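The aim of this short unit is practical: by the end, you should be able to scan a pair of folded records and say something sensible about each. We start with the first protein, listed as its amino acid sequence and then its structure tokens.
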Amino acid sequence: MKFALVRGVLIALLFYVASVPLTVADEGVNVGALLEKAATLCGENRYAEAEPLLMQVIAAEPNEAEAHYRLAIVYLKTDRSAEATQEYLKTAGLDEKLARELRMQNPMFSLSAPAKGVATESGFIAAPESAIPPVSDASGGVEAK
């Protein structure tokens, strides 16, 4: 009886271990092969299948610009523009050529970068004093500061 129980537990454990996907931390992650497979899937409009491969590449190599580029395309094609924008910004920080390609594919990305010197997360930045035009008084003259 005990042998059957132990055997059953071991078999269940074996099936569990076999069913758990390999983690990205494993040395066996072939980033190039995963990127190539994801590119093929994207070319076949199989974006749902390409996405987890790209996520695996990014988990293994966070600075892999091509993975962020392709993931931005996956998000675009699956109507997730906010996520696509985030991936575009990551791509732009890693590879300007790929970022330019994304902007050519979708002009939305041209609007994604914050305007320089206008706003930050904490609020608006005032223009330099010299850039502020003088204020006119009621008579049409310019007020002195």
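Turning to the second protein, read its sequence before its tokens, just as you did above.
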Amino acid sequence: MSKTDKLISLFTTEFITDDFLSKGKAKDFRCPLIDKCAVNKAEEPIWSPALGDESTTIMIVGEAPSRRKKGGAGPHIGGQFKDWTDGEAVHSLLRFVKSHFGTIPYFTDVMKCGVASQTRAHKNAVFEIRSRNCVKRFLLKEIEIIDPETILCLGKTSFIALKKAQESGAIKASIRLINLIHYGKQAGLPLTAKDKETILWPLQLGKVSVNSISNLSAIKKIIQTNEAANGI
């Protein structure tokens, strides 16, 4: 069985659809942990992963789906990552991996169910249990199927979850975990998606030399304030 077939098999019990390879609305979401995780599937964004190349050894792991950025509430199918055409940040990630690793990565989130409200109180109330359940039910199995060499973590939540899994022996010690510097606009730092794609991420992963960058003013501020700039 191919990796793609194994991934589809992992998710089709929960994500009801006629075509798992095409991005769009799912017919239903039937996870048995909906009540335990306090998921409102009519109001909150729920997404299956976006499939990469069959042979990819690169995974991107975010925190949770965003209603604002990922098509609204309800269950969705991620389809194939190469077909994603909306969102500057997503395009930058895809172009960066294609350029420096020569592959379409597998994209997923720690939590498959996001929140309708982005308030800190709501996140604190549900993220711990959703993260714990999704890591066990999905993410560790996704990693086993993909067998990645490198996982690019978007934010502290995914990096911490995977670091704990690695330290406990749940995932291979040989997997390179990168806490990809991923500041949003709310951080108030002078960094565009293009800056991340062409300067910051290549520097962080050692893909380019600092001597090849002509303007480092924005980058210096980011690096100085980033506590987990591993891999530089």
